[in-house]
Write a structure and sequence with these properties.
The complex is a heterodimer of chains A (354) and B (267). Chain A contains 8 helices and 21 strands. By secondary structure, chain A is α+β, with helices and mostly antiparallel strands. The model of chain A has no long low-confidence stretch (mean pLDDT 93). Classes of the chains: A alpha+beta (354), B mainly alpha (267).
Chain lengths: 354, 267
């Protein structure tokens, strides 16, 4: 078992700077998710930690060793790839045994460890098969079992579930979570799926444009996004942002309601709130935001409303039994303590002076 | 059936006859009695199957040693073409390096040199190096001929093997070489075998360089070319038969892998 430290990792591909001095610390036994849109550098960072890619500058430490210049095999890692990468010419047993054979484990040990890893992933009955005889989900199980069998200090996973269909993905997600809570292996997991990140992570590192913009517990990332990007990327539907200017005498007016807020750095500010933190009230009143309903989508657990506040689009989730018509003006109460402010120029959150 | 289908069928038939008819006639003549080859009009059906002609052919001086030389030269060519071509193909498939496309083109361009132009300088050099009239010398030239194909075919072969498989092997404790041996090689084997056989056939069929560069130690093709002019007709047919057979057998054996020869990886 070991923690991971990445210090000031930069990676330049030709003229493109994929990683701009990224630092990341993963504690021993911690499950960290690298979350971000494609092209944000999350896979590059993972591959640098794995040793499959060489950083332009910076240092990688696993446990108390500096592994920056070491090849993958000397880093004490195991990796699960997006397209599974199970060896097509080997049986499932030999696939799972591959790493153990490279370590020159005894036949007894190989057999015992392969069977244990196979049992963890529920593929005992498939050990004699070849990968071409397996479904995508089963191949993914083989890939995870193969990584777990070597009992790595660090487990690296690169979008392992993204090639599975939605239902299977949800099943595997829950199973992975249970499994990794049991094995307590230090894990870095790359995904662009925010639900996966929220579900699995001890801590989420949100990446954007070659930087880590926020690194915190999932609920903190969700409730207190460090940048407007984080608020918009995480959550479905994403956080609402209403652009506004301060009124005379301080504070802001949004949808007819007055709110105190921090000073706007450049004369403008983004008012941010999550769709579920806007509560529909039956009557107009002080402190309520007026919104004009554009679209009503009854999704079952809730109504998804697309509204306009001060002419700007926003989304609201409301109770499913409310009778709301298109064109109607509704009155929204922001949940207490749920309003966030962002600087539209820098994208950064502005903390309200306490 | 549409007219188009008929046309295609007809074209296929013509092409097949184009290839098969001469082969058939050679076989019939090689296994017919000696005087049958002179008969006119020719009988299309084989008359009196006999191995007499073939036996005579093998009894002729130089044939057996030529056959042995041909096999040895082709085997050397095969080994050298794979040993040099596969690493180059791997490099083309896996690494980005400056001038990669130019290199790819240059590899093919080597085939643009006509051997007759090279023959005299090559002979002079080979005499200097003591390679003249040796099997190794001929095999070297044949390797040069087979190498462009070996490089390009193996490169497309390696391209068809996902890089992640190798990376997975590295993370599981393999060095680059071990990963190649344990993961890439087994997957590339059918294609590599096809490439090797291709190199074998290139060498087996080559006659010009083999004739120029040898005097005593001739390959079968070189030997036959030099003696066929003065040989009786039935001898020619028997010779032709034994030049065709290995190529046919090999192509039949590797027909499954021909796709990978043309750049579609076998999975």
């Amino acid at each position: 078992m070991a923690g991971i430290r990445a210090e000031n990792i930069r990676k330049i591909f030709g003229t493109y700077e994929a990683l701009k001095s990224v630092s990341l610390e993963v504690a021993d036994r911690e499950f960290t998710v690298l979350l971000g849109p494609s092209g944000c550098g999350k896979t590059t960072l993972l591959r640098i930690i794995a040793g499959l890619e060489t950083q332009t500058s910076g240092e990688i430490r696993i446990g108390d060793r500096n592994v920056s210049g070491l090849p993958p095999r000397r880093r004490g890692i195991a990796m699960v790839f997006q397209n599974y990468a199970v060896f097509p010419h080997l049986t499932v047993f030999e696939n799972v045994a591959f790493g153990l054979r490279m370590k020159r484990a005894t036949a007894d040990e190989i057999d015992r460890k392969v069977r244990r890893a196979a049992a963890m992933m529920h593929i005992e009955q498939l050990l004699e098969r070849y990968p071409s005889q397996l479904s995508g989900g089963q191949r993914q199980r083989v890939a995870v079992a193969r990584a777990l069998a070597v009992e790595p200090e660090v487990l690296l996973m690169d979008e392992p579930l993204s090639n599975l269909d939605a239902l299977l993905r949800m099943e595997m997600r829950a199973e992975l979570k249970g499994l990794l809570q049991e094995t307590r292996t230090t894990t870095i997991y790359v995904t662009h799926d925010q639900v996966e990140a929220m579900s699995l992570a001890d801590r989420i590192a949100v990446m954007h444009g070659g930087r880590i913009v926020q690194y915190d517990r999932p609920i903190r990332v969700y409730q207190d996004p460090a940048t407007a990007f984080c608020g918009g990327f995480i959550g479905s539907p994403p956080m609402n942002f209403i652009r506004t200017q301060p009124v005379e005498g301080g504070g802001y007016r949004i949808g007819g309601a007055a709110f105190p807020g921090p000073a706007a750095p450049a004369g403008e500010i983004l008012f941010g709130i999550r769709p579920e933190d806007l509560i529909v009230e039956p009557e107009s009143g002080p402190g309520l935001i007026d919104a004009e309903v554009g679209v009503v989508e009854p999704l079952g657990p809730h109504l998804l409303l697309t509204v306009r506040i001060d002419g700007q689009p926003a989304r609201v989730t409301a109770a499913p039994d409310l009778d709301i018509r298109v064109g109607e003006t509704i009155h929204l109460r922001p949940g207490p303590g749920r309003i966030r402010w962002f600087d539209p120029a820098t994208d950064q959150a502005i903390r309200e002076p306490a | 059936m549409t007219i188009q289908r008929w046309l295609i069928l007809a074209a296929v038939l013509v092409l097949c006859l184009w290839v098969l008819l001469p082969i058939y006639l050679i076989v019939v003549s090689a296994f017919g009695p000696r005087d049958a080859v002179f008969a006119w009009p020719k009988s299309f059906w084989p008359v009196d199957f006999t191995t007499e002609t073939v036996a005579f052919f093998f009894g002729a001086q130089g044939v057996l040693s030529g056959l042995l030389n041909s096999i040895l030269v082709a085997l050397m060519t095969m080994v050298m073409a794979i040993a040099l071509g596969a690493p180059a193909g791997y490099a083309l498939a896996r690494f980005a390096f400056p001038g990669k496309n130019v290199y790819r083109l240059l590899v093919l361009m080597t085939r643009a040199f006509p051997i007759p132009v090279l023959a005299v300088p090559l002979t002079v050099r080979f005499i200097e190096f003591g390679l003249y009239d040796t099997l190794l010398g001929v095999a070297l030239v044949h390797t040069a001929l087979a190498l462009p194909f070996a490089v390009l075919i193996t490169s497309s072969l390696f391209l068809g093997i996902p890089r992640e498989l190798e990376e997975a092997a590295w993370t599981l404790g393999c060095t680059r070489l071990q990963a190649f041996r344990r993961v890439v090689m087994p997957l590339a084997m059918p294609g590599l075998a096809a490439t090797a056989i291709f190199a074998f056939i290139v060498s087996w069929n080559e006659v010009f360089a083999a004739t120029i560069l040898s005097l005593e130690n001739r390959t079968l093709t070189a030997f036959l070319i030099s003696v066929l002019g003065e040989s009786p007709l039935y001898f020619k047919f028997a010779g032709g038969f034994f030049l065709i057979v290995p190529a046919l057998v090999f192509i039949f054996a590797i027909r499954k892998y021909l796709f990978s020869l043309w750049g579609i990886a076998s999975r």
